UniProtKB/TrEMBL annotation:
Pathway annotation: Glycan biosynthesis; starch biosynthesis
Native source organism of the sequence: Populus deltoides
Carbohydrate kinase PfkB domain segment(s): 41-347
GO biological process annotation, one example: fructose metabolic process
GO CC annotations on file: chloroplast stroma; cytosol
GO molecular function, one term: ATP binding
Catalytic activity: D-fructose + ATP = D-fructose 6-phosphate + ADP + H(+)
SUPFAM superfamilies found in the cross-reference section: Ribokinase-like
InterPro entries listed in its UniProt record: Carboh/pur_kinase_PfkB_CS (IPR002173), PfkB_Carbo_kinase (IPR050306), PfkB_dom (IPR011611), Ribo/fructo_kinase (IPR002139), Ribokinase-like (IPR029056)
Signal peptide segment: 1-29
Protein's name in the database: fructokinase
Job description of the protein: May play an important role in maintaining the flux of carbon towards starch formation.
Amino acid sequence: MFPTCYNLLWYSWLFLLLPILCNPGKAFGGDGSPETKDSSLVVCFGEMLIDFVPTISGLSLSDAPAFKKAPGGAPANVAVGIARLGGSSAFIGKVGEDEFGYMLAEILKENNVNNEGMRFDPGARTALAFVTLRSDGEREFMFYRNPSADMLLQEAELDLDLIRKAKIFHYGSISLITEPCKSAHIAAAKVAKDAGVFLSYDPNLRLPLWPSAESAREGILSIWDTADIIKISEEEISFLTKGEDPYDDAVVQKLFHPNLKLLLVTEGPEGCRYYTKEFSGRVKGLKVDAVDTTGAGDAFVAGILSQLAKDLSLLQNEDRLREALKFANACGALTVKERGAIPALPTREAVNSAIIQLVG
């Protein structure tokens, strides 16, 4: 009789332990339901590529005597930017099974970015972009992706567990241009949304990559209403509203959808504007001598997301949000002082120092 009782007791304990044994990454509440994991991880989804930046500004691509090889791609820039600032980040995307692809994976690793979600395509090359720098540091792009590996990421290749662990899931619009990456993007965002992950969207308009201006507008807006936070530039406002004034608050408010928590408008050296349901305003930027504006917007995004990942309640407190945006503006400003995106992304110490000097 005693052995039978012990067996029943053992099976009872085993029944209670099974959920934990099968889901070691989850904690369970008293009612047996999963509790939200305390995480500050930001997962960035999309393209990673090599930017070739001319060593002399103000020349056309054909006249540039040499180019500096610089790792880039907006979502990857944000992932590295967050890690440089002391945050936790991961990158999901696809590169070629080639020297550049392996180099990019290693760069993520060296910068403390989780690269477990990276995939390597044996039949396509890592994307390349040649960047023309005007004398004021502004850019024009020539892309080599026909198709490149990032366009070929498939839904079946997604690391869904990594996405579900995130506090914030960040993405752009370039991954929406072609299949199969478009379907992978939509599936990844749905998994994140269903898991209660905060969605961050930077359209990052690159018109030459789209079949037409109308397809770009339609593609960018197709996922607009699912994001919790959106970062756009003045040029993107004009583009999405078909030429309306990007400095008119009424125009900007047209882009504010009911589920949006924060809409940010970046204005380069002038700083940024912010819009929530409760308040709006402007935060001044830092004035610096621009060498290359590549990655400045991504550094800004890294700056704000690194802070939101630690404390989403910033969105309810205007004073704290303004401080966070001052920090993000400084991240963007410091990035334009060097050539290339990832090589120029600042550390938290450098940003804090720049802010102190500005106040001083």
